[in-house]
Amino acid sequence: MYKQLIQLFIMYLLSFLGATMFYFAHIPLPWILGPLLATFIYNTYTTTTLSQNKFILNISFLFTGCQIGATFTTTTLEKVIPYFVPFFIITVLLIYACMKSGELLAKYASIGKTTGVLGSIPGGLSVMVEMSDSLKANTGLVAIFHTIRLMAVLMIVPLLASFMFTQTDTATMVSDRISFNVWTAILYGLLFILAYLLRRKIPAPFVLIPMIIIACFKISGIEVGNVPVSLYHFAQVSIGIHLGLSITMSDIKKAGNFSWVFFLFTCVIIMLSVGLGYIFASMSNLSFATAMLSLAPGGLVEMAITAGEVNADPAIVGSLQLVRLLFIILILPFALKKWTKFDS
């Protein structure tokens, strides 16, 4: 136990140093990318097995979900609902393009078509690994491909967004900040308990449950205090450590030459999402930044935080990324079974 605490302390110390360096270097997502890189390097060269504290990680996801939910307003629904159908159609087209690129990857790399497709779809790592088990794909390769996609998206999309759009401080994600109070602390505690109880029934419960409930409160006009900036940064650092530990050099080496091929495929999908984001923005009254990040093949949390940095709307980005996540979780497994059955 004592040794684990020492390792955890060293990880956080290095991560905060990495975050500080990224912050002063004006690199986007400094509180996530700095810890991610620092943890990845430390994990690569240390002989000790590192792990993130589960309780700290879940609390960090909770804070992040609450912060994203706090960005919702009544105008969020007014902006999202009219363009739900176009967004859904564009999302389906993007996922279809990912599936076809997965087929090309499978053909080039001489791997199973199901493995290639599952490795290319922009879903969460745990979700896609679970799908690969049920569809009897190569789970190891699926995990490796999603690890490479995660690295590419986290490094490219925030940098691309910061160069294309105006960069701001993540602390300004919520324009009218309400001070943290006792009522908010009690609410956060209840949300944590609810997320814990539903952890086996709902994907990413520590993010989605607080995000949805806080959003409902804000839309209904119920005042809820914002997450203090210091806690929000700590939450991002904890998530960055978690992401850094999920990426290992051994996994990248296992992919061999395929890693570069898949990296190029990921870059193509990112550029495709930029193009589709421009089309989506021209079809709606959403800004280009908001539309692009809503379609970017990254995670809900990372893209919503990036939105807060580049003057996009984190609430809209979070809600539309949630729509895609639900589509991938609820509908895609059935479509994939039909797809692979038809191809075989």
UniProtKB/TrEMBL annotation:
Query: Short name of one Pfam family for this protein?
Result: AbrB
Q: Does the keyword Transmembrane helix apply?
A: yes
Segments spanning the bilayer are 31-48, 55-74, 80-99, 141-166, 178-198, 205-224, 260-280, 286-305, 317-336
What InterPro entries does the entry give?
A: AbrB_dup, AbrB_fam
Key words, A-Z: Membrane, Transmembrane, Transmembrane helix
- The domain of life for this entry's organism is Bacteria
Question: What name does UniProt use for this protein?
Answer: AbrB family transcriptional regulator
Species the sequence originates in: Gracilibacillus caseinilyticus
